[in-house]
Design a protein that fits this description.
Layout: H1 7-10, H2 16-32, H3 39-42, H4 48-64, E1 69-75, H5 79-85, E2 91-96, E3 100-101, E4 105-107, E5 116-125, H6 136-142, E6 143-153, H7 170-175, E7 180-185, E8 201-206, E9 209-215, H8 223-235, E10 246-248, E11 256-257, E12 263-267, E13 273-278
């Protein structure tokens, strides 16, 4: 899979004032639990480079507010989603300590705006991994364990513009820290070499009803390949996956709406389960 960002996607088209305003609007939307309009409508020429620049400035604001980075999330890893959005690569965002919930957590009403949940395999890194040539084997060697996980998605940007009917684009999602909101880790910790991650799967239930099923192979054919993509992308900008980082490798189910009263549980079979509920 191609990991390098095209020259077109590297081009910054927005000026610094527009980037700063977008980041500030997103930070305020998160703080006040209030959505803003589509950035892609505000700036029709906006590209991926602009979106990641906005994300960077948003992340700085979040860190300055006292929150601590704990890792990364990867999104848009399925071919179906990539084709739907006319892109060839996944996207990524930053995880913070304020996003981490215990297995079985009860999430208070109003904590999120429009939460949805996806099933993930989380990688917990024992040591850092970096470089333009990182492959799946290096990822597995650096990983101390993998764990069942749920990712909670939220959007500080409207999904659809009420006036024009235009839907959110990938640049909106990337700018919004890849729709990051929360993560729940299961209790099980598995050595990465002890299981074929392509066959690690789950049954996703909402209020006891099976809504989705999937296998790790839905994530770029191998979740470790997804994490290797992230390491290579970060290396292009001088970054890395650090020791102790948690990386959500990408969902192998469709996102499930988590309206108030939802009890969400992912059954990973012999690898246990992971759950949360929304009050």
């Amino acid at each position: 899979m191609r990991s390098r960002i095209s020259e077109r996607d590297r081009q910054i088209r927005l000026g610094s004032p527009d980037i700063e305003r977008a980041a500030e609007d997103l930070f305020e939307a998160e703080s006040k639990r209030r959505q803003i309009g589509l950035l892609s409508r505000r700036h029709p020429g906006m590209g991926l480079a602009d979106a990641y620049r906005i994300q960077d400035r948003l992340v700085e604001r979040i860190e300055n507010s006292g929150k601590r980075r704990i890792g990364w999330k990867i999104g848009l890893t399925s071919k179906a989603m990539q084709r739907a959005l006319n892109i060839e690569i996944p996207d990524s965002g930053v995880l913070f300590d304020s996003m981490l919930f215990e297995n079985g957590a009860r999430i208070p009403r109003g904590r999120f705006i429009e939460p949805r949940v996806e099933v993930e395999i989380a990688f917990v890194f024992g040591r850092g991994v970096a470089g333009a040539g990182v492959d799946r084997d290096q990822v597995l060697d650096a990983t101390s364990s993998v764990a069942p996980a749920l990712e909670i998605l939220d959007t500080r940007i409207v999904r659809q513009d009420p006036e024009s009917g235009k839907k959110r684009l990938v640049v909106d999602t990337v700018a919004d820290n890849a729709a990051n909101a929360g993560l729940v880790l299961g209790d099980a910790r598995v050595a990465p070499g002890a299981v074929d991650l392509r066959w690690m799967g789950a049954i996703l239930e909402r209020n006891g009803v099976v809504e989705e099923t999937g296998l790790g192979a839905g994530v770029l054919n191998d979740p470790a390949e997804s994490v290797a993509w992230l390491a290579r992308r970060l290396a292009e900008f001088g970054g890395e996956i650090g020791p102790g980082d948690i990386v959500l490798s990408g969902s192998f189910t469709r996102p499930l709406e988590a309206m108030p009263g939802s009890r969400i549980r992912a059954d990973f079979g012999k690898f246990g389960s992971v759950s949360c509920s929304f009050e």
